Every structure is written in C-alpha cells, then in structure tokens.
Amino acid sequence: MNLEVNLTGKTALVVGGSRGIGRAISLKLAEAGADVAVAARTSQGIDHIKKEIEALSASFLGIPCDIRETSQISKMVDDVNAWKGRIDLMVNSAGVNIPTPVLEVNEDIWDKTIDINLKGAFFCCQAVANKMVSQKTGKIINITSQLAFVAYEGRSVYCASKSGLAHMSKVFALELAPYNIQVNCIAPTFTRTPMTEAVFNDPEAYQKVISRIPLGRAGEPEDYTGAVLYLASDSANLVTGTTLLIDGGWTIE
After folding, report:
1. What span, in angstroms and rounded, lies between the C-alpha atoms of 69 and 17?
2. Is residue 6 part of a domain?
3. From CA 147, how far away is CA 41, in angstroms rounded?
4. How many domains does the chain have?
5. In which band, very low, low, confident or very high, does the pLDDT at 45 lie, cut at 50, 70 and 90?
C-alpha cells in the first residue's frame, strides 16, 4: 500500500518490530521518515532489522527487551526517550500464540501467553503513556487480532489475551484523551509470518483457515502498514478507542 504520510521528525517505537507484521511496520515507518526504535527479544532480530532500516537512510535504535519483565519495559522506554527526547508513536506488535485445546492448556501456556500478549502490552502502554502525557500528544497502536472478536478452536488463551488487549486499549484511550493521546488497535486476520509457518505448510489446516476468509486469501504483513500509517498520521487525530479489523471479511458472519 502506497499511502503518502510524512512522519519526518517523529520518533516511533515498535515493540516486537523485528519479525512478521512488526517488521513490515518498522520498515514502513522508516520509509515515511520516522526515526525508528525496534524492541525485540533477540539481538539477532535487532541486527537484521537494523540493516534494513538503515538502508532506508532512517535513524535506528535497537533495544533488547523481554516485555514479560516490567523492569526491561521501563528501561526500553527510557532508552528511546533519551535517544530522541520524546516518543511520538508506539506500535505494540509483540505476541505469542501456542495452539492448544482447552482441555490441554496448562499453567505455563496460560502464563506465557497472557504475560506477553496482555500484561506486557499493558505495561508497555503505561510506560509510553507516562512519557506522552508530558508532551500532551502521542499515539499508541496495539496489534490485536480478529480472534479478539470470533472464537477459533485451539486458541482459547490467545483469544482471551487479544480480546483483553482490545478492550484494555479502550480504557487507555478514555483516560489518555485529556492529554491528546490517541490509542487504537489493528486486528489482522490469519497472516503469513514465522509464527504461522506450520499452518501454511499443512494444506488441510491452511484450507480450513482460508475457507473462512471471504476475500479468499491470507494476510501478508504489508497488508497492515497502511492502517498504521493512517492511525499514526494527523489525519487520525480524532480517532481513538477503536479497533480496525483487517480480516478479509472473516468476522462478517
């Protein structure tokens, strides 16, 4: 998508920005002129995205961060703020999905999924919002899922975490509105990423997913970058507390 948005002079933090949807978003923000900080759990992921972003002549900061640890979240946000003196945009794209039937979910699966997808997201939003309040401006975009709105077998904990993220974002939007901070979500459909490779490699599982998408195809990471650019731009200054479904029609029925 070629949406003309100029983010020159803006500082963006993409949490989980080295792979999949997060990577596509990081690159698109860099193309739009933003200074981009990418937080990822591995230094290998950071090294790879660093080369790609610097090839676009954009300023880059890489931050190792496990968002299950609130102390690491605080350091991440402080590092970005020290880097450019402000944070104009945060995109939270970090997430995990461990497909498991409800009768087989154990405490480890529950804790890992909720700690990353919901708890980690909450404290990322909180830490960034505390910086944005003093600026009296800022934008937060959380990447949730169509499974925040519809059920799918084997995804009970993931569904719970993503629906929680969507509703949590509404409360952030409500409380931060007096500070001119907009908080929104994007809800992707099933998308080709490293996390979904197993389904793409299983013809039966893949067909089961695609049969539920009226437009007849899975998402690609680049399908969501236009929505992020819009929500990051001044054109969306009156948009807050909403979730934009980009699901190929999955949730129509």
Report:
1. 18
2. no
3. 24
4. 1
5. confident
Per the listing, tokens 């402080």 go with 78
Mean of pLDDT over the chain? 95
Q: Which of 158, 179, 206, 224 is catalytic?
A: 158
Structure tokens given for 176? 């931060």
CATH number of the domain at 59, please.
3.40.50.720
Residue 253 lies in a domain: no
Residues 6+ apart with CB under 8 A from 95: 16, 116, 117, 143, 162, 195
pLDDT beyond 80 at 141: yes
Please tell me the pTM assigned to this model. Answer: 0.95
Q: Is 224 a catalytic residue?
A: no
Q: How many residues does the chain have?
A: 253
Mean of the pLDDT values across residues 234-245?
97
For residues 177 and 54, give the distance between their C-alpha atoms in angstroms, rounded to a whole number: 34
Tell me how far apart the alpha carbons of residues 65 and 39 are, in angstroms, rounded to a whole number.
Answer: 6
118 lies in which domain range?
A: 11-248
